[in-house]
Design brief:
2 helices, about 25% strand, transmembrane helix, 9 strands, transmembrane, single chain, alpha+beta, about 190 residues, Jelly Rolls, three-stranded antiparallel sheet
Length: about 190
Amino acid sequence: MWDHDDGWRNGTVSPSRRWNWLVVSVAVGGIILSGFLLWRAMVALPTVKGQFPAGESTTVTLETEGITVFADRENTRFDCIITDHRGQTIPSSRPTTSETITINQDSWHAILRSDTPVRPGTFTVACADNAGTAVWFAVGPHASLFGFLGNLFGAIFVFIAGIGGAIFLAIVLKIMRERNQTHWDSA
């Protein structure tokens, strides 16, 4: 009923050279995408911009949405006021989870976050320590460790998938070409 033979069933047609480009494209695409995700992971790392002792204030310019206030001690009793460049108070509250970042061997504990995403800009932060200890405060963008880890694991997965996919395609092409060669040798 169906007499057409396209050559694939009996191995008389070899895969075209375009398939080689597909293998290279999958590998290069995986490497480029994983590099992009790795760059996003580095950008997502929490950082601190301005450091200041209790009872003083600092002005910082943030390039990303949100603002976080850190203290160099956990369980600090404090009063902080965050204002934008117009002098408007930014609503903020304590984070629901504990978050500690270490930068240059200094540990910083997130103690306050803006409640809503605030636009990038210049902010003034003033904090007082209600316990009377010599606490230092720092200000940084609203960043989370989950953003860093998500991008990092995504980069690793995409790299492995890209290289693995390219290797898989290369093996399939090699098998298809060997079958074609075997067919021609036996004819």
